[in-house]
Amino acid sequence: MEAPTPLLRGLLMICVAFFACMGAAHFFGLKIPVLFVYWDPPFYAYQDKIIAFTLVTYMALFFGAARHRVMVPYALVSIWATVIGLALVNLSDALAQVLNGGGTLAYWLITAAFGGLAAILTLIWVRDAKAR
Fold it and tell me: So where are the chain's domains?
């Protein structure tokens, strides 16, 4: 199978490392903004363990995409679904309830960062596909 271009492969591997850091932060309860999208609302520790384990699937998917170009669209779908999901959470009544009138700007900034990452990966993949 054909690998993605070096630039795309490198960015996908950076994503793998980021998801590993994010998973470790969730597993150990290290509430670090960006590694924890929603670091300040109340939470249950078992939820963070579940998130940590699900991040392993992101790592595997993005690692596979970094090695095999045919997998890149699946990684892109997953990150765009994450961006949409985060936006829906940011708009939700459930989040507003736990925040007790607190703002969501920081969450929107993190969501926008994920959206920017998704856009960059998508644009590079499209550019590379046209060049082939």
Answer: 6-131
